[in-house]
TrEMBL record:
This is Growth hormone-releasing hormone receptor. Receptor for GRF, coupled to G proteins which activate adenylyl cyclase. Stimulates somatotroph cell growth, growth hormone gene transcription and growth hormone secretion. It comes from the Eukaryota. It comes from Gouania willdenowi (Blunt-snouted clingfish). The chain crosses the membrane at residues 131-154, 163-181, 217-235, 242-261, 281-308, 329-348, 354-379. Keywords: Cell membrane, Disulfide bond, G-protein coupled receptor, Glycoprotein, Membrane, Receptor, Signal, Transducer, Transmembrane, Transmembrane helix. It holds the Pfam family 7tm_2. One of its GO terms (biological process) is response to insulin. Belongs to the G-protein coupled receptor 2 family. GO terms for molecular function: G protein-coupled peptide receptor activity; growth factor binding; growth hormone-releasing hormone receptor activity; peptide hormone binding; vasoactive intestinal polypeptide receptor activity. The lineage of its organism: Eukaryota, Metazoa, Chordata, Craniata, Vertebrata. GO terms for cellular component: plasma membrane. Signal peptide: none annotated.
Amino acid sequence: IFLSCRLCVHKLNPFGPPTPVMSSLHPECEYIFQLEKEERRCHQSITEQGNGSTEGCSSFWDAVVCWPHAVIGETVTRLCPAVFSLFKNNTGSVGRNCTSEGWSEPSPPYHIACSVDDHIPEESYFAAVKLIYTVGYSLSVAVLAIAVLILLLFRRLRCARNFIHIQLFVTFIMKAVAVFIKDATLFSNDDTNHCTLSTFACKVSVVFCHYCVMTNFFWLLVEALYLNSLLLSSFYHSRRCLWGFSLLGWGIPVFFIILWIGSRLYFEDTECWDINEESPYWWIIKGPIVVSIAVNFMLFMNIIRILIQKLNPRLIQFNNSSQYRRLTKSTLLLIPLFGTHYMFFNFLPDHFNVNLRLCVELCLGSFQGLLVAILYCFLNQEVQNEVHMQWLRWQERSYGVVSPAAKGSQMDTPF
């Protein structure tokens, strides 16, 4: 969830996930600030020493530890920086030999001596991830926009089911747009310091992104609730019922977003609100999403159970079998699409296998709206029939050609 920000976090912290620390700063920012402080102290010490002996190895800062002047043949040992305790509880020491050719490499290497992970994701990996999800979201927005127009323009396609589909399509479009806005605000410049960036524009972009993601998950929940209601009963879904769905899909996220904004303003107004690891207030947003995913998965299992019973020819009437079979096809195509891969990471820590999460939730997730639009609009038989009928009517008006299929054609009323 919200993994576009992971690109920023990985750049901030090349030593893996932090352990909790009691600090007003995020651990990654604390790590950067402490190293910058040590670097200034090192350069100040080198300047104060002035032009000393030119023999041996000169003092220098290696981006982690400040090494003093040493004579040839001398071995200098330094303790691991205290800042590493932000990520691991135990620290060790690192040594360098002063040779006639200069300083040797650290021995043992920092990632061994200081018990930190030396796996630093390559910039090319992040660039590839960003390229993939940019293409995915762009295609999704274009296809979803066409799908929304089709469902809105054709009057015979207006029904409770398609009303919910339209809301879901809109949330996919909003989520894609929010990701683009967030990228333009936070990641347009590689030199942006996310530990000091704290502007109104960046906070608004982060809030908008969180709201769009929440609405998307809640409308996925509405889809599951609606499909369950269709299978459990055949009652007519009144306007009041649709208003209730709308309140759940659009209103509930507003409530939690406002709570989260208030908590960040009064208790944790740091950076650009885009780094949330170890923040207890993050659960104001993450908690409802985790619950919605879990409920969605249970509804999916319930749908499968009902369909197995409903589709048994001995338990249903012949005239209803085609309805259930058509609904089964739609349900089985949609529910796994938004349920199963979210459940895989739903109850795992945020830092669990982040590279895999980036691939699944950002890269594959960016194409989710595209797939939903294709499955529930362009491949829908009712939509195809209506588009075909409109095409025949246009030909009739333009060329005076009346197709036999256009005479007296009637469509089944959609669910």
